[in-house]
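User: We ran a pulldown and think these components assemble together. Before we commit to crystallization trials, I'd like a predicted model of the whole complex to look at. Sequences follow.
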Amino acid sequence: MLAVIASISAGIHAGIFSPLLSPLVYALKFRKDLFLFSFLFYSLALSYEFYSSVYDEKFIALLLSTILLLDSGLKGERRDYLSYIVAALLVSGIFFKEIFLFAIFLAFFNQFRGEKPSKGLLVLPFVLILFAIYSIKDLAASSQVALTFAISSFMFLFWIKMRVGSL
Amino acid sequence: MKREEILLFLSALLFIQGYLFENTFPAILAFSIIAYLTYIRLEFLPRIEVESFVEGKAVEGEKLKLNFRIKNLGKKVKVEILNEKFIEKPEFIVEKEKEVSCTFIAEKGVQRLVSRLRIKDLRELYFSELINEAKIEVSPSVEKIREEAEIRIRSFLGTETPEVKSLRKFQFGDDVRRIDWKATARLQELIVKELPKEAENVYIILDASKEMRKSVKMAKIDYATTIALLIAKSVKKAGLIVYDEFGILKKLEPSTAERIAEALKFEKIEAKSLSLKIPEKIKASEKSYDFIKKVLPMIKKRKSLSSGIVEATGNIPGSGLLVFITDLTSNTSELLKALLELRNKAKIFLISPNPILFHEFEDDMEKILRLYKAYVEREKMIKKFSKIVSTIDVGPSDLLQVMEEMKCSL
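Assistant: Here's a predicted model for the assembly, 577 residues in total across the polymer chains.
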């Protein structure tokens, strides 16, 4: 539910309607394959509707809320004391812009806490490189897309060694 | 389409969308999804230890629980146990340690249960598999055999002992306690019950060689153990000698059916077809037999130089009733010699499961011709054995016939 509130809240701030589909997507979480297909269409619709520059807080909020929705649908959500506080902050974020971004980061942290990542932290350098490159705003959008694709491709190098079966 | 592939496909579409519409948001979203998948892949390092065990005594046909003790040395994972023989397919989360039980129907003999444990990450995107093999010894069910044998042979089974074999006129010397008063009142002369003579020293000599244990649709050894148990049940106590190609596997002095059931657990060999090897000549040259007798045990690392049947017959004490159960595909000449020697000392019955009748019949003319030839050869061999001892050639459905024919002897 936190992911749904976060998505709707980010959508309201961004002035777009596609995040209103997030409850529908979330409701399909009990059938994982169906959930992933609906998430595919949701992401395409969201990307089609939303246009913004990189460092915009709406951009980051929408991005985080979409990944949050994906993870909540696949893994499920915790229901504890902290989750209720985060939910309250997200709801108030709809009305108070200042706490909105902070609430989204807190929701993201709440979803991944307890995982104690070890090897997963190797993903972090790629995220930092991406942000470093995008500090050069003068690049055309298509060039930025191409650069992002190139950095993403490097991540597949990790996949070669990690041979696991997929469901 | 796999779940990971759906997300990779989405990423590809987002990159294309971002490039065509000159929008960085789809590209960053695609990058984030790939980073998310990479993170999950890197974090999925399952370390699981599994132990399986069965509680209680395993008896054929009963529901049995196979317990799994799962120890997780890594992060929280989801585990699914897959085995077509289990009634349920449990799926659960394992944090540190968990014990789960799965129910299945026990099959007679030494049963090997191979279970696949599918270990999944919490998001159910990736998995790895662990194989667990459990070896379970299942005793044949005496109760089940009793049900299979039907009313006609009920006198051989259970607690209803055959009290009366027949009635006859009273003779001087008969025990007055055996007078049947109802029959006497009806016929107006003294009538006594004639009780059957309990066979002394009933020994079951069972062939548990490789051919007997081969299983296509039904293993001959399963049939043989059923017969052996029926006999053991009908005479209250019977001795058991189990042999294979090279020597004696088990030997029991005259014991109850329950003890015999415990000893009748054999590991079956899964096979696509049974060997139809029927010796063309029962008598081969002495030299070749001597050579094989010396060499084979050394290859197979056996201590004894004699074949299984020779050792088995050497261990039969004295006289009585001997029931041989063998498919006559191994050491046939030696068996013939042994029977020729023993027939003067004891009453012998030979029950032979016919390998052709236990074969899987297919729509293949060549195979059918081969089976027919083998059947004809076997008929000749059975005739030869019938001249020496009472021989019954049987198939999987001939259980009742066997017991009827043995009725007189027991």
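Residues 130 and 148 of chain A are 7 Å apart (CA to CA). That may be worth checking against your pulldown data before setting up trials.

User: Thanks, that helps.
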